[in-house]
Amino acid sequence: MPVNHPLHIDLFAIIILMGVVQGYFLAIFFLFTPKGNKIAHRYLGLFLFALSTCTVEVLLSYTNYMFKMLAWVDFAEPLNFVLAPLTYLYLRTFVSERFSWKQLLHFVPFAFYLVCMCLYIYPLPDSFKYNSYLDAYHPEMPFVKNEVLDWGWFCEIRDYVNDIMFVQMVIYVAVGFVELKKQFEKVGLSIFSKENYSLSWCRTQWLSFASIVLLFLIVKRTFSSDLGDHILSAHITFIIYAISFSVIRQSDFFRLGEEAKPVKKYEKSTLTDEIQDQTLARLEILMQEEKLYLKEDFSLPSLAKKLGVSPHHLSQILNESLGQSFFDYAAQWRIAEAKKLLVSSESQHIKIEEIAEMVGYNSKSAFNTAFKKIVGQTPSQYRKEEK
Fold it and tell me: Does 261 map to a domain?
C-alpha cells in the first residue's frame, strides 16, 4: 500500500496550524479559569477543544500527513455532533449560570455515533482507512483492493453524515436565536442593541457559529467529498483569534498601575447619558418586579450582571444620577419594604428580627441602624406610631 506522498505545506496549512494551537490554548484557558461563570466557561472550553480537534484532522489530511497515520483517519468525526449543542448550552448558561443534568441529553447523538464508530469503523485495517482517505481528499488516486464489508444501516447513515450534521446545526442555530432574542427582550432591548455587553458577547458567539454553519453548507455544495474543508478550517482559525482578541481586550492587565494615578473620578468612563438613562429605567423595573434587594447575597456585581453593565458603570450611575452609593440604594429599597411589613395587619405577629431577615438583613443591629438613618426612628418606634 503506497504511503510515501509528498507533504503539502502552503499558506492554508500554516493558518490552520495556527488556529489549532491557539484553539487548544484558549480551550485550556476557559476550562480551567477560576473566575467568572464557570459553567458557561466549561462549555466554551469544550467547544473550542472539540473544534480544534476536528481541525487537527483536517490539517493532517490536507497536508498529507494522514498517509503516515492511517489509523487516525476519521478519528474526530463524532465530535462534529457536539459543536452545535455546546454552542447552545454556552449561550444558555452564560445568562443563567444554571447547570442541569438534563443538558447532557443534548450529547446523545454524539454518544450514539461514537459507539457506532468504535464498533464499525475504528477497528478496520489500514487498507480500508487508506481508501477512505483517498475518497475524501485524493479521489483522483487509485484505491487498493479490499474485502467488501456491509455495515448495514450505519453505512447508510455515514453516506448522509454531512446532511445530518447540517440539519442538527441549523436546528441549534435557530433555537439559539430564539433564546437570544428572548434574553434581549427580557431586559427591554432590541436584539441588535450594543448596550448590554453580556448579551452582545453572546450574540457575537452565535453569529460566529452561524457563519461556520453557512460556510459548511457552501463548502459541501461547492466541493466534492472533503476537498474544501481547508477553507472552513481557515475561517475557524479567524474565529478563534477573534475570540482571543476579545478576551485580551477585556483583560484587567492594561489597567494595572492606574490606581496609582491621581485622576478625576469617572474621568475616563465610557458611559454615555443615553445608556445611563436607559439603565436607570431598567433598574427601576427590575427592582420593582423581581425585588432582588430582598436577598441576603444582593450585591453590586450581581445587580450589574443582571443589567448587563459593569459594576463600575452601575456604581457611576447610582453616584451621578441618584447621589447614592450602592449600599444606600439597597438600604432605601429594603427599608421601604420593611415599612410595609411593619404596619401590615398580616405581619403584626412577625418579630422585628424576622422582618429584618425578610428584607435582606442578616443582623438586627444593621437593620436598626439603616432604618433609623432613613426613617429617623427605630423599627419598633415606627411600628408603634403607625398602629
Answer: no
Say if residue 375's pLDDT is above 50: yes
**192 shares a domain with 79:** yes
- Over residues 186-202, the pLDDT tens digits come to 767 788 887 777 888 99
Least confident of 99-113, 140-154, 178-192, 320-334: 140-154
Q: How do residues 138-183 score in pLDDT, each as one tens digit?
A: 998 988 887 766 667 888 888 899 999 999 999 999 999 999 998 8
Can you list the alpha helix ranges (DSSP code H) found in 97-152? 108-116, 126-137
Number of domains in the chain: 2
Domain-embedded: residue 65: yes
Q: What are the residue ranges of helices labelled H in the chain?
A: 11-32, 38-62, 83-96, 108-116, 126-137, 153-159, 161-186, 197-222, 229-249, 273-290, 300-307, 311-317, 326-343, 352-358, 364-375, 379-386
